[in-house]
Structures are given as structure tokens and as C-alpha cells.
Amino acid sequence: MMPKTHGFLLGASILVASSLFLSSRLCASALTSEEISMQLTRAELVRLAGYGEERISSVLVAGTLLCDACLRPGSDPVTFPVPGARIGVGCRTNEESTRKTNWTCGTTDEFGEFMVDLPSHLHAAPWLEESCMVRVLLMPKECLCRSNPGMVFRDLKLSSGGNNIRVYSAGTLRCRSEAVSEQCSQEREDEA
Helix, strand, coil shares of the chain as percentages rounded to 5? Predict the structure, then answer.
């Protein structure tokens, strides 16, 4: 048989070990609940990152699309705005292994002006002026000018910033009606 003191010590050791185990579990669960109470909800994180309905910042790319066309052979070219053209703004992002271009589109208004709102994940892109480009994707059918698929405009400049809004200007984009322009220039050369 075991002496009573040895059994008492063994029982006390088990009691101390189990209480230490339980207290460590309670502390761990208290710490976890404290961490949880300090964390933001998913909705708050989404709102703070600018992805929610209420955006924290906006980055806009604005410009004007004009068409230079010679309406009659021998006449001076006429410049007019192009309403209803589809404009694309593409921004390159450096990802780990690939270089990807994210495109966002907009449409010109009756004055040929466009304003494209960039998605939130591009707001913090470094060197936005160098990593983004503007392209005329589609011209209206009734327009004399046609879009050239290789025509890309890369001269974005920060035109204003404040109140969590940055506006980059693409300036004035010009398209030409090649067939009409060639006739116009041929007539002028024939006259000279």
C-alpha cells in the first residue's frame, strides 16, 4: 500500500496540473475573445478599404475625344467632338509572376468628354501615370473617324487632387478619318 502522504501528493499534483491546464485554456479563450472584440467587422474593413457602397477615395481619368475630318476635298479639316464612343482605361499591375492589365470602360458624352472611375484596387498603384493608358475601343457607326486599334494614349497627368478625389487628365485625344483626310490632302497638293 501507498503511504497516505504519497497519495496526497499525487492527488495534489493532478489537481494543480488540471487547474493550470484549465486556467491556460480560459486565458486563451479570453485572449481570443479580446482579440475578436478589437477586430473590425468585415463590413467595416470593406468600407475602410474603399470597396463598399460608401467609397473613401475616387480616382478618375478624364479627357476629350475629337475627330479631325475633311468633309469636302480641298477644304480645311473640321474638328468636332465624338459622342457615344467607348473609351477604355487600362492599368498594368505587377503581380508575382505575370503582368496583367485591368481595363475599365466609359463612354463619351455629347461634348466628346469622358470620365472613367478606376476600380478601388488600382487606387494605390504606384506610378499611375506610367502604368495606365487610354484607348479608344469603339467609335459610333455614324462617325466619320474610325478607331485605330493600335492607338494608345499614355500621357496621363495628375490634374487635381483633394477631398479624397484624384483626377488624371488624358488631355485631348484626336482621331482622323483617313480616307477623307487623304482626299483632302491630295486635293491640296494638286492645287499647289
Answer: 35, 35, 35
pLDDT digits (tens, 9 = 90+) for 97-119: 557 788 899 999 999 999 999 98
pLDDT at residue 155 is higher than 50: yes
Nearest-angstrom CA–CA distance, 113 and 110: 7
Report d(CA 75, CA 78) in Å as an integer.
9
SS3 state at 101: strand
The whole-angstrom distance between residue 34's C-alpha and the CA centroid of its chain comes to 36
Helix, strand, or coil here: 91?
Answer: strand
Q: Which pLDDT score, from 0 to 100, does residue 128 have? A: 79
107 CB contacts (<8 Å, ≥6 apart)? 84, 85, 86, 87, 114
Q: Does the global pTM surpass 0.85?
A: no
Q: How far apart are CA 163 and CA 57, in angstroms?
A: 8
pLDDT for position 70 = 79
